[in-house]
Specification:
With about 90 residues, the protein is an alpha+beta fold. It has 3 helices and 3 strands. A hairpin with a 2-residue loop joins strand 2 (about 65-70) and strand 3 (about 70-75).
């Protein structure tokens, strides 16, 4: 070890590790095909998380796809189609 280097230390047990914020999504960055996670959907649609899930339950928003126990996504095509159908209303 050189005299100018600092040894790496393990985080203190129980200490929270820093988490990077989720990137905001703009329509230009949103894929037209593939899947969108909830933060990406909410970046496109000006509604709250609770309203999103109420609309899913009411059948007025596309149903999500469950990829695994902890991963839920929406098909980008379905979300973009829904946005197009709204005609400026959400």
């Amino acid at each position: 070890m050189s005299p100018h280097s600092t040894p790496l230390r393990s985080p203190t047990p129980g200490a929270a590790l820093p988490v990077a914020p989720a990137p905001s999504t703009t329509p230009a960055q949103t894929p037209v095909a593939g899947f969108l996670r909830q933060p990406q959907v909410l970046g496109l649609v000006p509604i709250s998380k609770s309203t999103l899930w109420r609309r899913v339950q009411a059948g007025t928003f596309p149903l999500p796809v469950k990829l695994s126990e902890r991963v839920t996504v929406w098909r980008a095509v379905d979300v973009h189609h829904w946005i197009g159908e709204q005609g400026g209303r959400s």
